[in-house]
Design a protein that fits this description.
This protein is of the alpha/beta class and 423 residues long. It is built from eleven helices and 15 strands. The chain is 34% helix and 22% strand.
Length: 423
Amino acid sequence: MKIFHTADLHIGMKFNNYPESVQSELKQARGSVLGKMVSIANKQECNIFVVAGDLFDSINGNSKKTIGDVVTALKGFHGECVLVLPGNHDYDNNMVELWKNFQELSQDIHNIVLINQERPYSLADYDLNAVVYPAPCHSKHSDVNNIRWIKDEIIKETKSNAKAGSENAEAKTDEDADATKYAGPNIDKNQIRIGISHGALEGISPDLDSSYYNMSLAELVGAPVDVWLLGHTHITYPDKKKVTGWKIFNPGTPEPDGLDCKHTGNAWIITIDDTKAGNSDIKALNSDTKAAGANHKEVSGELITTGSYRFKDQRHIVRNKADFEKIMGDLLKDDPRNTIARLRIKGKLDEETFNYRNEVRQKLDESLACLIFDDSEVGIKITSEMIHKEFSDGSFPSMLLTALKDDEEALQLAYEMIMEVRR
C-alpha cells in the first residue's frame, strides 16, 4: 500500500506581514500546491491521499469557490480514496460552516472522506484491507491530545475478536479446535492500521504551554497501529530523505510559509508492506520511534519536495565589496524569482563601499520575488581623510575627532552628533 501524506496547507493564509506585491502570489501558491501534490501522488500510483489537518488556515472566511477549488483538486486523485482530517486551525465542532460546505460540495465524490469522528473508518469499500483511526481536532487549543480512544478501541476490538475466536473453537470438533488454537483468534493479521492525528509532537514542535494537542513519542510508539500520519508541526519529521522501519511521520507544510521556514516544502510517500517486520528487520535511525515489536508492518518513507517559493532570512557583517558579492551570489543562486529574502546587514564601510550597498539593494530588489532590506546598522567608517575633508584643521570638530581616532565607537558617535548639529 502506498500513501501520500501531507498536512498544513493552510489554504486562505493572508500573509499580511509581507508587502502587497507578493501577498497574492504566496496565497495562490498554497492552493496550487494541492494540485501539484495530487499529480505527484497519481504519478507514484498512491492508493491513499491523506491530509492530516489544517487543509484550510481558518474555519472562517473560506468562500464556496475556494472550497470548491479544493474539492476539485482532490477529485483529481486517481487512487482509491482521499482522507481529510480537521486540524486545530480548521477544526470541526459540528457547527462549522466550512465543513458543511465541504461535505455538500464533495457529497457526489465517493472517494473523498472527511474523517471528523473518533471511530474506526474501514477502507474495505475502497478495496483496501486497512482501518483508519483518526484523532480530529474539535477546537483550536487543547491541553490534552485526542489519541487515547484509539488504543482503547483497538484493545476492545482485539478482546472481542479473541472472544469470538474462543467461542468458535468450543463449537468445533477437537480436530477443528486444534486448528483454531494455532491459527489464533479471528483477527486479520494482514489488515493495516493507520493512525492519523493533528497536534504538537513533544520535543519537536514549539508548544511551550502544551496547548496544541501535545503528543509524546512514547505514547505514539506504544499505540497499536502500524503507522502514524501527523500534522501541525511545520517542519519535517523524521529529518531524513528516506527511512525504513519507521512508525511516526510528519511532513511539515508543503509550501514554505514564512521567514522561519527553512525547508523547501515537503510531503511523504509512505509504503506499507504486507509482510510483518520482525525486530531484526527494523532499520529505523532512532530507536524511540521504530516500529515496536513483530506485530507491525514494514513501513518505509520517502520525502518529496513540493514547494515553489523559498524563504531566506539572513544576517551579515559587511566590511567590503567582496562581502556584498558573496551575499548576492547566495541569494540569487536558487530560483530568485520565487525567493522571499530578508537581509539584515551591519558594519562600518569606506565611503565607496557604503554607496555600493545601494547598487546591491537595487539588483536584489529587481531579481527577487520580495526583498526586505535592513541596513540600519551600516555606517561610514570615519577616517583621517574624511575628517580633513569635512572640517578645517584646528577647528574643534577636527581636534575632537582626531583625538578619538583610536576609539572607533566613540569616534563614530561623535561624528554622527557633529553632523546632526551641522544639519
